């Protein structure tokens, strides 16, 4: 490491030590470490080092690394919910609202892949579906409400929305996961295009009484 980088690092640590480290500093540090080395690289020690402190400062705010991840999970779902609700509010009709919500979903994963991994147990994050479904309920409810409105407009029972929502989410989540893993040649742009195609295909099927 060069002297210049040592000096810059020392200055950054000194700046952080000029005020007490708070929860936001710890959460931001965890995300920085994850973006550099993945979530498996995130430890309490590395979080503390990132903000220029030792381990006890983290434990003043969080009981464990998992508690840090749970808080990030909650933040992620809150941001995703805000994005998809904003997209729904801008649309001229229910069908375009669902398309917009799907684009917002992919857009969130593109701009905050670290949070998306925490939310859905990807990238070495030690959470499973059984531990995260409660946090994601509001997102699922928002998407479900949009699908119910569409089904009702097609003269179908809005109570039939659960399976269509799960099938559509499975497709979109799968495309996002493939893009995140570098398995799509076109990356997130391709995932976004295929997501819109999936939504529009689903709309046709629902309109025709299928799905």
From TrEMBL:
<dbReference type="GO" id="GO:0000976">
    <property type="term" value="F:transcription cis-regulatory region binding"/>
</dbReference>
<dbReference type="InterPro" id="IPR009057">
    <property type="entry name" value="Homeodomain-like_sf"/>
</dbReference>
<feature type="region of interest" description="Disordered">
    <location>
        <begin position="1"/>
        <end position="22"/>
    </location>
</feature>
<keyword id="KW-0238">DNA-binding</keyword>
<dbReference type="Pfam" id="PF00440">
    <property type="entry name" value="TetR_N"/>
</dbReference>
<dbReference type="InterPro" id="IPR050109">
    <property type="entry name" value="HTH-type_TetR-like_transc_reg"/>
</dbReference>
<dbReference type="InterPro" id="IPR025996">
    <property type="entry name" value="MT1864/Rv1816-like_C"/>
</dbReference>
<keyword id="KW-0804">Transcription</keyword>
<protein>
    <recommendedName>
        <fullName>HTH tetR-type domain-containing protein</fullName>
    </recommendedName>
</protein>
<dbReference type="Pfam" id="PF13305">
    <property type="entry name" value="TetR_C_33"/>
</dbReference>
<dbReference type="GO" id="GO:0003700">
    <property type="term" value="F:DNA-binding transcription factor activity"/>
</dbReference>
<keyword id="KW-0805">Transcription regulation</keyword>
<dbReference type="InterPro" id="IPR036271">
    <property type="entry name" value="Tet_transcr_reg_TetR-rel_C_sf"/>
</dbReference>
<feature type="DNA-binding region" description="H-T-H motif">
    <location>
        <begin position="43"/>
        <end position="62"/>
    </location>
</feature>
<dbReference type="InterPro" id="IPR001647">
    <property type="entry name" value="HTH_TetR"/>
</dbReference>
<feature type="domain" description="HTH tetR-type">
    <location>
        <begin position="20"/>
        <end position="80"/>
    </location>
</feature>
